[in-house]
Amino acid sequence: MSEYKQPVSVLVLIHTPALDVLLLERAGSGNLWQSVTGSREGDESLTATALREVAEETGIQASPDTLVDWQLSNRFVILPRWRGRYAPGVTHNTEHVFSLRVPAPIPVQLAADEHTAALWLPWQAAATKVFSWTNRDAIRLLPRRLSATQPPPRACA
Q: What is the per-residue pLDDT across 97-108, written as a single tens digit (0 to 9) for each?
């Protein structure tokens, strides 16, 4: 296994049917809020990456049939403060968007080395609170993405 992170990651919007969105505050970054994110490890599928990151960052045990792959990806410049986690010369990451519906706002178990706080916000407020443009844009797409999904995805218990 490489000592470097892969420049391939997932963004998972965890939300309720009422479109309250779970946000996590990054540890050591001072008021940087985000949805669940994380890099692919080894040759795992993107779905496996998303499920693993949800479990690691929130304690939520989801199954593949509760996760929605938006078939949407964004390529962005890796911020200099985090570039050392990647192999020399790697400057961009490709992030794949997923969503996971839960029945209602639920307590989560944070990974203390990654996040210091969690909160549930209506999607409009969540979109203005996150620091990443990819996260903001995904949250803004959430109402349209869900209204286009027929039938609605199963809720994660």
A: 999 999 999 999
- For residue 100, the one-letter residue type is L
- What is the full DSSP assignment across 66-88? GEEEEEEEEEEEPPGGGGGGB-T
> Per-residue confidence at 8, pLDDT binned at 50, 70, 90?
very high
The string of pLDDT tens digits covering residues 57-80 is: 999 999 999 999 999 999 999 999
Q: Residue 157: which of 110, 114, 103, 98 has the closest Cα?
A: 103
In angstroms, the CA 144 to CA 157 distance is 23
According to CATH, what is the number of the domain 8-148?
3.90.79.10
